[in-house]
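Inputs:
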Amino acid sequence: MIVAQQKPLEEIKAMIADAQKVLILGCGTCVTVCFAGGEKEVAILASQLRMATRLEGNEKEIREFTVQRQCEYEYNEMAADYIRDADLIVSLACGIGVQTVNEQFPEKLTVPGLNTSGLSQPTEQGVWVERCQACGDCILALTGGLCPIARCAKSLLNGPCGGSQRGICEVYAERETPCVWDQIYHRLKELGQLDKIMDIRPPKNWHPSRDGGQRKIVREDLRL
Amino acid sequence: MSDKEYIVGSNLEKALKAGYFVATGELGPPQNADRKEIERKARLLKGLVESVNITDNQTAVVRMSSISVAVILLELGIEPNIQMTCRDRNRIAIQSDLLGAYALGCRNLLCLTGDHQTFGNHPQSKNVHDLDSISLLQMCRDMRDKKIFQCGEPIKGQEPRFFLGAAANPFADPFEFRPYRLAKKVRAGADFIQTQLIFNVPKFAEFMRRVVDLGVHEQAYILAGVGPIKSLGAAKYMATKVPGMEVDPEYIERMTNCTRGLPSPAEIKAMPPKEAAEARRLRQEASEAEGIKICVEIINECKKIEGVAGVHIMAIEWEEAVDEIVKQAQIGPRYDPARQQPTPAN
Amino acid sequence: MNYAKKLLAEVGLEAERLEIFFLSSAEGVHFAEIAADMTERARQLGPNPLKKSSGVKPWTQMEVKE
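Outputs:
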């Protein structure tokens, strides 16, 4: 799922510095599940901002609202009155939600309260690890179900490089990031598909990825 | 290598083909725009080795580019091995640079993936990695042998023709896969290989046994990476702080013992300045002599390992040591007794 | 608790103002000790700086439209 982390309080305070009535707008989908921007997080942030701005002698009026999913107009409509009444909206949704609210209510500026940082898997309680880079051309069938584009620091297609030590990637060694090519090698071995790692993979076509420009999917069969 | 014709005809290729135990060297470009430092280092290496590697923003630290330094070396009559990494340039820039490199006289090219930018002085930069070392090798070989660009378009006119090299790390994991990866690089187009620094000969010998089993040594020339240890501190650093490097504890012991009998650093601190300086000099001399001795021993052991066609000497920031090393090991154009005649002219 | 203290610290309030204790109803004496300690702590830290009213009227929550 999409995961994000809340920006430092100082940064959010700076963004609301010139506004008086601020709405903290949460989202009930991805950011709720990663505990960054759901109803509870909205309440905590609102509380912190009230306290912080009062301490600085510049108290703001902070309001709270959470919609089911900020990337869809129908859900954001439910917050319309709150939005129209505010000077500034701090969205605790992912980057998509922030932009949707800006687009839907252009007369108000909606700023991001989170840093959206990946398409990740919750590997254990409280930990999210990046798994996908949305490159648009999935090669998981060739690598035993492990993605080198997202999980290799150098996005190698013909890995591992010489920096693979005891299964750990030398980049950020202190984080003990596993070398995904070491994992791919062992997985292909278990599956009896080691020939796949001996094939020379040609350079990736990056065109379906962000490199080719903003991506758009159109399904004529689904359009009204 | 039954082919009598040279692929490219560089000095390096000719020496390897002639069957000499070849030595290549290395030069690290400066972190500034001044050519004087290059000229100084180049003079220390000239005539001692077949050709000289010029690193490409090694460890992701910005330095003068490999190709530009290569041109300076060519002016000084030294054959360069240019390096191209995949970290900083996409396929367009790489092909473009290589067209120019050939036109400027470069003939040996090492295709590398490149150290990650987090290791260097610009960790905030975007890393490119459009290609990796293997697809880069293939692209360069196809430019040379099929006369096509990566996109498939034919190259009209002179194609860039490089003697292609690649790196190999016998000490990385998974160890059982490394000889196969080397085979993959050779299949992709590598004509010669340079390994990482070797300070664990038995493990390297095991690696070479597997490589020879695969027959790879007959399809590419393999040069063992060697280098002198400058001090005990350097030995310990390599043993503990450098990922992918294995140092036999015996060498650390020898670097420790070589200064036995001389004043210790603690004793030197208590000495008057003149005596202290002299004591430090003696310690340094002893360390350096031992470090070079170990390097020469490793070279001599590599000579006996089947499949090893030569050595790649890395004496970064200590280029002065190379003369002593090749002299003691009796390798290279100047000191190899098998090469009484001068190297064939290009 | 550590998380709550961190939130307070970010805001600029002393983390020591907040504490959690676990007691059973039989520990009357212990409760009194803790109360005395916290009172002393509060005294040393000074009055809650948030108490000063800034004159801003709270922007009342509107009713949620169903």
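Remarks. The two ends of chain C are 36 Å apart (CA to CA). Residues 29 and 35 of chain C are 10 Å apart (CA to CA).
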